[in-house]
Design brief:
222 residues; alpha/beta; Rossmann fold; 7 helices; 5 strands; globular; binds zinc ion
Length: 222
């Protein structure tokens, strides 16, 4: 059985990416990063999501990106925007996906994984540079060069199955594959009771997609 590392944040996209990896027959190893994000519900969501799928191992790795800050998600003094804005929003975390891919690659090399799955997508997203198809191609090139096992001929494929999907397609495929979206969290700034703000980019993109599909989204908004 081929092995895959799945980067699992606890959000809708990575949960759907996990369901796709399972469906494609991979033996899955989930990797969740505790990077100092604003709330820990995401991490609890990841723990709950893996219970619904057959996962060989789930690792939680802490890497404190608040030491750099520079994002509304890693610096509590920067406010999460509650309206659509132009350009790359302040919720962009500097080099986050590159850091995550590097950590996934380290584990992949140890277990000789065949693939690394990520839920990045370039359609309904906030314009982050590390979610673009050309970024994924560059990461693949890096993987081919970066490790002992790939330099000896083994391939580790970067799989971004959602890259060209919009949020509605992601929801449809996730449901088909058994993702319980009520366990996922999208809000950048949950309140102390775990309720979503309904105002941040992530909440707005999520609720619009559920609305357009005429589906009930069983998460609580403030
Ligand atoms: Zn929100």
């Amino acid at each position: 059985m081929n092995k895959a590392i799945v980067l699992l944040s606890g959000g809708m996209d990575s949960s759907t990416a996990l369901s796709i990896a399972i469906k494609e027959g991979f033996e899955c190893y989930a990797l969740t990063l505790d990077y100092g994000q604003r709330h820990r519900d995401e991490i609890n969501s990841a723990k709950n999501i893996v219970k619904d799928f057959k996962i060989t191992e789930h690792k939680l790795v802490s890497i404190d990106l608040t030491v750099f800050g520079g994002s509304a998600l890693t610096d509590k003094n920067i406010k999460v925007p509650e309206q659509a804005s132009s350009g790359i929003p302040i919720t962009y975390v500097p080099a986050r996906n590159t850091i995550f891919f590097s950590l996934a690659l380290a584990w992949a090399e140890v277990i000789e994984a065949d693939a690394i799955f990520s839920g990045v997508n370039a359609i309904d997203y906030s314009g982050y540079p590390d979610c673009r198809p050309e970024y994924i191609s560059a990461i693949q090139e890096l993987f081919n060069l970066a490790t002992k096992i790939t330099s000896e001929g083994k391939s580790i494929e970067v799989c971004a199955p959602l890259i060209n999907m919009d949020k509605k397609e992601i929801i449809k495929i996730g449901i088909e594959n058994g993702v319980d979206f009520s366990k996922t969290v999208s809000c950048y700034q949950l309140d102390q009771h775990g309720k979503s703000c309904g105002l941040c980019d992530s909440c707005r993109i999520r609720s619009k997609a559920f609305e357009e599909l005429n589906l009930e989204d069983n998460i609580e908004y403030v």
